[in-house]
Every structure is written in structure tokens, then in C-alpha cells.
Fold this sequence. Notes:
The protein is built from 7 helices and 18 strands. The strands form 3 sheets. Strands 1, 2, 3, 4, 5, 6, 7, 10, 11, 13 and 16 form an 11-stranded mixed sheet that branches. It has a 5-stranded mixed sheet with strand order 8-18-17-14-15, with no helix packed on it. A two-stranded antiparallel ribbon has the order 9-12. The two termini are 35 Å apart. The chain has 284 residues and is α+β, with helices and mostly antiparallel strands.
Amino acid sequence: MKLGSFWMGGKPGYGVVTDGGIVDLGTALGDRYADLRSLLAAPEGLARAREYAAGRKADAAFEEVGYLPVIPNAAKIFCIGVNYADHLDETKLRSAAHPTVFLRYAESQVGHQQPMLRPRESTQFDFEGEVALVIGRGGRRIAAADAWQHVAGFSCYNDGSVRDWQFHTTQWGPGKNFAASGAFGPWMTTADEFDLNTTPLTLTTRLNGDVVQQSDTSLLIFSVPELITYCSTILPLAPGDVIVTGTPGGVGMARRPPLFMKPGDAVEVEVSGVGKLRNTVEAD
Length: 284
């Protein structure tokens, strides 16, 4: 099942993605589950969504909705740096015994087909295609052996990075949190659609149609269960929290000459079995 957050009928909502469009869950179930995050928090939420959408015609066509970040109001967005060996190599950073974690704020993100903004303070706006996971079951100090039980689903993510601001100091937060610099969507595909023990997720990033990054989750330095264990040790994870698992090699800052996104560019992040996140770049 595919679930997302959208503008529908002039108001924010959420729904199930079908071949024909969007089944509106917000209108049908909103009195019990106000948003997608609330739906995930309810033990019966996914089952109720699946039951309601089964065999139902779409309430809105894809072109009739506006896309929001999958979880617009995520309480915590953990992002993992240098989590592919080829990206570690191209950055010339030392390998670490623990995941490199930084945080994003929800308001730094946009949804599918919404413009990512290159801030006027920089010309070093970089693409970073990533696989994001959405937490469906909360917990503290989650054991790696139990981690998959806490994953609601997967989505595409573009961790757009303002590189000069990222490296003002050793703290990466400023370069990772400019308004509308990241993108999250177009929707999440629930974890029951995958068998990640046998089939990894393939990640591809394209800039103006050219492939600039390609890898798969079997090549993560720290696996999804390890990331869940580590992040849940810091703070309890809650339904709707997001872990962005890292970008592979090929980022613009490591190329010679560098390849940064500029206004007018089109960038796409595709994750196998999930979908394609497409955004244009505009000047802020």
C-alpha cells in the first residue's frame, strides 16, 4: 500500500495512492486520525486504511492534488551522513565506528513536484538522493533483531545540501536546514511490500535526465536495523519519525569540476518499488 500527504480540495489531507489517483482518507477517517502521522500511531490504523481503500475509486486524480512531504509534521528527522563506502571515499573523511547523525527540521522540506529553493546566500546547492524510512511502531533502545517490526514504510528523499554553509564549521546543521532545501516523497510504500533480507532497494538520482548517483541499500555501511538501534538509543522513536539513511557516491561537490544544482534544473530521486520524487530548482 502507498500512502501520502496532499493538498486536496483546498486543505491538507492524506490518502492511499492507487493506479487511478488518490483515495481520500482524511475526509473519511480524519475524525479518528487527523493526519498520516496519527494513522501510523494507531495500532489498527494501516488496517483501517487498507480496508477503506479496497476496491474504492480514487477521489482525486494525481494532477488534482498538491504533494506535501510524506510526513509533514514529523517530530524527528534523523539524517545519516557518509553511509556508503563510495561516498566516504569521495569525501576523504575517515570511517567512523558509529553512524554520523544530524537532524533536519520538517519545515526545511518540500513535497514531490514542489520547487527546491537554492538560497540566495550560496551557489553550492548539492543533490543527495537517499532512501528514507518512516517509523510505524515506537520504542526506545530497539534491538537490531527487532528493528524491522518498527518500520512502517519507505520513501524517496533528496537531502539537498548548501555545501558552503554546511562546512562553515564542523557542525552540519546550517547547510542541511535552509527553507525548502530538501524534498520528501512522493509517498511511502508500506514495509510489507518488500523483503529486504533478499532484495535491497535500488536508489538512482538524476539531474536534468542524467544519472548522477546509483546504488542500493545492501551497500549501506550501517544497515537499517543498526540505524534504528542507534537512533532509538538517543531518543525514543515514535510513529511518523523519519530516518534518512545516507547518500551514495556521485555528489556534486566531489566532482571535478563540481556539479551543483541551479535554478531551472530538474532533479529526480527514484527508489525501486517506491516511486520517483521529482523537483525543479528555483532561486530563493
